Structure formats: C-alpha cells, structure tokens
Amino acid sequence: MMEIPIGFGAKLWSFISFLPFFFLLLILGVIKAAIIGPVAVAIIVIGNSAVILGLWPAHFTWTYYCVAKTKKLGPVLKTLVLLFLPVPLILWPILGIVGSILLAIGYGFFAPLIATFEAVGEQVVDKLFHCFIDGCWSTLEGSCTIVRDVTDFCFHSYFSYMDELCEKVAEDEKPADIKIKMLPSCLLASLLAVPIDVLIITILALWKSPYMLFKGWQRLFEDLIGREGPFLETVCVPFAGLAIILWPIAVVGAVVAAFICSFFLGLYAGVIVHQENSLQMGFAYIISIISMFDEYTNDLLYLREGSCLPRPKYHKKGSPPGLLERKQSINNSKYEQKNGKGGPYGTKLVTERSKTLKKAIQQLKPIQIWDWLFQSCELHGRILFRDGLISVADIGECILKGRCKKLSIKLPAYCILQCLLRSARSNSPGLLITEEIELTMFNWPNDKVLEWFLGPLLIMKEQIRGLQLDENEEACVSKLIMGYNNENPEDWNDSGFPADDNVRRAQLQAIFRRLQGIVTSMSLIPTFRRRFRNLVKVLYVEAIATGALSSDQESNKSKGDTSRSNNHGDKQDEEVAENKVGTRPFDNGDIDIV
C-alpha cells in the first residue's frame, strides 16, 4: 500500500514520478509473459484436451445410462432429455477445449504480469530479485494445478453427480416431470415474453449506457490523478489504466450481455407458468422481470433506489428469499446508512464516491472461506486423531485406496458443526468462522456456489440455537457425528448422549444429515478434492510423528503371525495390505503438504 498524496501539487508529482517506474515494470512483465506464457498455454491446452477427449466416450455412455436408469425424472421429461442429450454431449469437448485455450492465454499472460507488480510491494524484501523471478515457476505450477482440477472434475466429480442421479428416491418423493397439458400455455408465455422482454431490457440498457460510460470514466480519472481506489495498489495500476482505455468496450459488452440474457429471461416465463400452473403468473413475470432488471442496474450504477416500473407477484405462495431479495435488504440497509441512520453495526457511509473506493461492509472472498475450512479441518483433524476418532486405517484408505468418504465428509461436517455451535452460543447474527471474522449476509462472498451452502448453514445455526444444547450435549457431538449413524434416534443409545428425548435426538440427527449432505456437495468441487488430499497427508505426517503408524503396523504384524499359525494366510495378507500405509509413496508424486 502507498500513502495517498494530499494537495494538487503532491498528486501531480506522484503521478509524474510514477510513470517511468510503471512502464519499466510493465515492459518486464510483458517480457516474462512472452517467455512463460507459451509454456503455460501448452500445459493447459494439451493437458485439458487430453483429459476431455480421453474421457468423452465414457462420459457419453455413462450419461445416457444414468439418465435412462434414474427414477428422479418422469417419463415425459426423461424422453425429452434422452432425445436432446446428444447436443450438449457433442458440444462439451468443443466448448471445453475452446474454453481451455482462452483460459490458458489469459492465465499465461496475466499471471507473470501480475506477479511482477506484486514483487514491488512493501512486504517484499529483495524487490529487484523478485521482479525477475516471481511469476515464472509459480505460473507453470498453477498451469499444472488447473489441469489437475479439470481432471478431478472429469474423472471424479462428474461420475459422482451421475451416481447421485441413479440413487434411490424416497417413497414420498415425486419424480420431476413435465405436465403435457401445460405445454401450450408455457409456449404461449415464452413466445410473448421473448419479444417484450428483449425489446424493453435492451432499451433500458441502451438508455443507461451513456451514464455508465461517463460516470465510469469520471471515477477512474479521479482515482488516477489522486492515486486512490484501484490505482492505490501498485499491482492494480496497469489493469486500472487499461480499464480507462477499454472502458467503452466494457460498456458495449454490458449492453450486449443484457441483450443476450434477455432471451433467457423471457424464455423463463414458460418455466414460471409450469411451476405455478397458471398462465396469469407467466404474464405477471413478463412485467416483473423488467422491473427487477431496472432495479438491478440502478443498484450497479448507484442511481435511484428501486424501480419506478410495476412489479406484480408471479408466485402464488411466498417463496424463500433468493439472492435478489437479500441484496435488496442489504441495499435498504445501505440506504438507511446513507441518510444518517445507523446500520446493523453502527457504521455510516461517508459519501457516494466512497462506495467505489471502499465499501462500508467489506465482503469476504471465497478463498478466505476455503482457507478457514481447511485450516479448521487440519486443526480439528489432529485433535480427533489423537482422541482416536480418526484412525490410521481411515488415513490409509484415503491415501492408498482413494476411499475418503469418512474423512472428506465427516471431518469437514464436524468443523462446520463446531462453527454453528459457537455462533449459536454467542447469539451471532451470522457465522463466527474465527474470533475476528464474522460471516453474515452483509459480507459473505458474492459467489453463487457458496451462496447455496451458506444460506442453509444460517438456518441450521438458528435451529441449533432453538435446541439450547447444554455443555454435556455439545461435548458429545464430536463422537456422534464422527463415529455414529444418524438415521434413527436409537442409533445413539450406546453413545452416552445425555438427553433421552427421542424428539430432541431426531432434530439433531436431521441437522447432522443435512450438514453432511452439504459437505457431500462441497466435496464434488475439484478444488476441495485437491486440498483435502493435501490435508490427509498432513494427518499422515501427524501419525508418523506421534508413532501411531509404527505401533499400528507392529500390531498388524503380530496379528499376521497369529493368522499364519492358524492357517489363515489369505486373511492375514488382506489385513496387512489394508493397513500397510507407510510403505507406498504418495499417488502421482504429489507431496505438497500445506
């Protein structure tokens, strides 16, 4: 970070003196990108293309098999899916390879360039050395990581999704299907919505584009002269300067994006008609989505609050608040703060311009949530291992056989449960992920995937708060979630759980099952799999350090000798192979322990 100059003369001198320094770093970054970029592009494109094309026959066959076998789809919907399924399956390798090329070019060029500017930060000791070195080897490592994540998705996550599709459905669960009698009404609503919504949304986007152009230029130039906002960080200077030049293209791209999205927004009217079983609700959606788009753009451009256009309800029953409603709640809070009223934390916005430089409520980044989760898993994993709730056999099965279901589901679920208990105990409005950081709806990451997970966690926190668990019950949850089934209240009979109330047990078990379901969905993300395997290696090192691994092997060896004396050679060989954790190197040479 750099100090903000005060006064016109100081600002002008800061701007002039920084130009030569900036251009030297820019030239050096471009040279490094020209050298490292082609190698990174080759790694990503060749690796991803090989994975996508190599697994495409298996993806094609297995997808058709799972869709044909599933009972979660009704006969009409299943027939339509099977008829149109070849289209996405054929487009997948094309789009995957084209996307890999674009990703490789962007990453191979910008990663070395960003690292060059980051090397002159205040915390860097030898700046000159790091200007030449940073961004070279790390870019190549990052390219390999991208290929590994794509491999994990294609080889593990995809087949896990398909397996879930083939799971048995509950007796009271109805398969998703299309009502044939509603198809004419759905088609009519979509045909009416597309021309209306496309026309009006495009007009609104064009109407607000000049304001977006000049307002954006105004703020970018103000930040450039004053060395504030994106120009305060040295690493952001080249991209902020490039944003000034390319801002008209960004405005045109926003208008084009609004035009393209308006088609899908219009077509969704048919879905509303099918969901609500009412053509009138579809007509209401056609008008309402225009008002929602107007309000959304007003929020982005800091124009008037809300929209002057009508917004009729297009749901017969109240639906749970989605992202738009939560954003509206946050915007209302900001509006109260702007007018001098205290917000939830007693903060106030200073000026309208301060919104572009520093938000009154700092949003967390998705990487911060992931870092907390795996750091918590590492900390609690060591404790649970020493307490015997995680065994050497669990670690061995995960490293050697890839059977990580217990560790990858129950360990993160236990860590999140501890966070929920801590948050409920302190009456927090959000989630206390650390002593210093509280995650609420006001500062959670603007990430759709994390939103799917964080919303239910807030509900479970309130459910735990309503149960009012005592200290003995909280102390028992680690043993319950790690070592016991959570299907029936009777599963906890020998667990030592203090409460005998079956209703209370069933409520806790329902929370545990839902929590494990959330973690199961998280585990399908490729980043989760990669980082969790590194975590398991940390636990493996912990087993070596505590001597548990050697003692376990000696115990297995003595069992093997007894087994051979009893003429049970086959069984002994199976036990030794299953528990022989320390005699085989890590898979594919991956020994990066974090």
Description:
With 594 residues, this protein is mostly helical. The chain folds into 4 domains: 1-175, no CATH class; 179-319, no CATH class; 323-357, no CATH class; 366-579, no CATH class. The chain has helices at 8-69, 75-84, 86-118, 127-133, 137-165, 183-226, 237-276, 279-301, 323-338, 354-357, 366-386, 392-401, 405-425, 448-467, 471-483, 502-523, 526-546, 548-565, 569-579, and strands spanning 431-432, 438-439. A two-stranded antiparallel ribbon has the order 1-2. Helix 3 (86-118) runs antiparallel to helix 4 and helix 13 packs across helix 14. The protein is globular, with a radius of gyration of 28 Å. The two termini are 28 Å apart. Residues 319-361 and 559-594 have low confidence and may be disordered.
Properties at a glance:
594 residues; mainly alpha; 4 domains; 19 helices; 2 strands; 1% strand; globular
Unreliable spans: 319-361, 559-594
* Biggest β-sheet strands, sense, barrel: 2 strands, antiparallel
Q: Into how many domains do the coordinates divide?
A: 4
Provide the residue-averaged pLDDT: 77
Total number of helical segments? 19
**What's the Cα radius of gyration?**
28 Å
Kindly state the percentage of residues in helix. Answer: over 70%
Strand proportion: under 5%
Number of strands: 2
> What is the straight-line distance between the termini?
28 Å
Q: Which structural class should the secondary elements be placed in?
A: mainly alpha
Order of the strands making up the biggest sheet? 1-2
Describe the global form: globular
The SSE string, one letter per element, is HHHHHHHHHHHHHEEHHHHHH
